[in-house]
């Protein structure tokens, strides 16, 4: 069993831009899985060419922390820098590292309902 990389609450409270926001932990996990999916070489991605080129370049020589930082900071995608959301890059980096080491969804199901 892999260590749980996220908070044990159902919602994760964050402070960003002087406002308190909540993000469901499942959304953070899903976002990380989406990034992992886009970084997987053996699955053809059906998206616009700019997105495919971004992820192709990203997977060449980046580590998990660098990949997460670059995806969250790619303002063309998000119109803002998601790295500014308190602890989001750290949570997603931990999750991506676990996924890269073979963790599956069952390893993340210990979250409290």
Written overview of the protein:
This protein is mainly α. The protein has one domain. Helices cover 49% and strands 11% of the residues. The protein has helices spanning 25-39, 49-61, 64-73, 75-78, 88-100, and strands at residues 11-16, 19-24. Strands 1-2 form a two-stranded antiparallel ribbon. The chain is globular.
Helix content: 40-55%
- Which percent range describes the beta-strand content? 5-15%
Number of domains: 1
**Computed structural class:** mainly alpha
Helix run count: 5
Order of helices and strands: EEHHHHH
User: Main sheet: which strands, in order across?
Assistant: 1-2
Radius of gyration: 14 Å
Write the layout of secondary structure elements.
Layout: E1 11-16, E2 19-24, H1 25-39, H2 49-61, H3 64-73, H4 75-78, H5 88-100
Antiparallel strand pairs: 1-2
Summarize the entry for a quick read.
The chain has helices at 25-39, 49-61, 64-73, 75-78, 88-100; strands at 11-16, 19-24.
